[in-house]
Amino acid sequence: MMALEKSELLLRAIAMNGELPCEAAEYILRSRSYTAALITKLKKEDLISLRNKDGLKGYVLRSKGKKKLLTLAGTEGKDILSGEMENNRPRTDLQKRLRLHRMAYSFTYFYRMNVPVFPSDKPPFPPKRSDSKQSDYNDEKKLPERNGMAYFSASEVKAGSVQVKGSRACGMLFVHQTAYVVYHTMDQRMKWAKKMESSMRTYAETCLLANGYLGDVDAVMIGKDMRMMLTLLESDGGIKNDIYRPDDVYEHVYYFSMQDDGRAQMMVSLDGEIRERFRRFLMQPRHAGDTQRYPCADGFDEQGRPVYICCDLELRHLIWVKQEMEYKGAGKYICLDYQAGQLKIYFGEEAEALPLLPGKVLELVSGWR
């Protein structure tokens, strides 16, 4: 990922998302005091302004800011500020601004996870599989070799597609030979139209199939913190059944917390090859157990107690594990250390946590590709 001056980085981030929440600016620059100083400077130069309405605060580009970005970023700046990627049209409606904020938080999360997010760091959407045999395949469409990942915002993914404009999707994350539709629920349950999101999944799968990808598309759900995961797991869909709760639109939905370093979780849940190898590693040596009584168990301990791998935080799997523990007795669950507290609340005191250190996990799996 190319190194950018902090001021240019912030201007690009605002332009890519239309409106950048104040908290997201700190998240990108990694320093509250430095962010405050830089924001003050950019405001004095009349490059950005603060939009404060309906309890939402975010930074937007002013005309001078757009001209400055065009000067700094050249062709890429022009692409960001024009055509289907143009997010800078004035938006005053609360729900539309909330959608921009969700997109911005998703963008900043993957930037912090060292995933390419800017157009100059990744191929055009949709990228080809790296092992594609199609005759029109070329290196310009290849995912970055550094980590085989790239994130595309909703303005890039939905460009020209009227049928999925109403989707709550914030973008798509590509990880080697697979892809995930990304959602951000912030600190509250978001609106959810099952029919629309099913169309979004179909649209994503159609795009991927045309570019050498096979199989179904899964989803990533990002929330403010680990407590938000419990809110989603216990959601009933609301009175009108128009609020998100885990359903069958996607076979797998993986939850990530904005407040925690998700790099290790990302590797062991979203990278299929590493995920399977890591699961085999955790279950060695294998012990006999009653697989018919515990169909959700990933393995068993020396006493035959079920062991569940939960560090990927796949929402429907967590629900099934909880149901199995309630009806057939508590077991053990493997998770990352920052996940243990909320999972203990969800599974109950009788279930035994086996927490792993994310840094050690990341060190272990980083050399597996």
Describe the 3D structure.
With 369 residues, this protein is of the alpha/beta class. It is 40% helix and 16% strand. It is built from 14 helices and twelve strands. A five-stranded mixed β-sheet has the order 4-5-6-7-8, sandwiched between helices. A four-stranded mixed β-sheet has the order 9-10-11-12. A three-stranded antiparallel β-sheet has the order 1-3-2, with helices on both faces. Helix 1 packs across helix 4, helix 10 crosses helix 11 and helix 10 crosses helix 14. The longest helix is centred in the N-terminal third of the chain and has 19 residues. About 2% of the residues have low confidence.
Task: Give the SSE map.
Blueprint: H1 6-17, E1 20-21, H2 22-29, H3 32-44, E2 48-53, E3 56-61, H4 63-73, H5 75-80, H6 94-112, E4 149-153, H7 154-157, E5 171-175, E6 178-186, H8 194-209, E7 218-223, H9 226-233, E8 253-257, H10 263-270, H11 272-282, E9 299-300, E10 306-309, H12 315-328, E11 332-336, H13 340-347, E12 352-356, H14 358-365
Parallel strand pairs: 6-7, 7-8, 10-11, 11-12
Antiparallel strand pairs: 1-3, 2-3, 4-5, 5-6, 9-10
Keywords:
single chain, 369 residues, alpha/beta, five-stranded mixed sheet, four-stranded mixed sheet, 12 strands, 40% helix, globular
Summarize the structure.
Helix content is 40%, strand content 16%.
Helical fraction: 25-40%
Binned strand content: 15-25%
- Secondary-structure element pattern, one letter each: HEHHEEHHHEHEEHEHEHHEEHEHEH
Widest sheet: strand ordering:
4-5-6-7-8
Summing up helix and strand content along with how strands pair, one would put the structural category as alpha/beta
Q: Quickly count the helices.
A: 14
Stretches where pLDDT is under 50 for at least 5 consecutive residues are: 132-138
Whole-angstrom Rg? 21 Å
* Oligomerization status of the protein chains: single chain
Distance between the termini: 19 Å
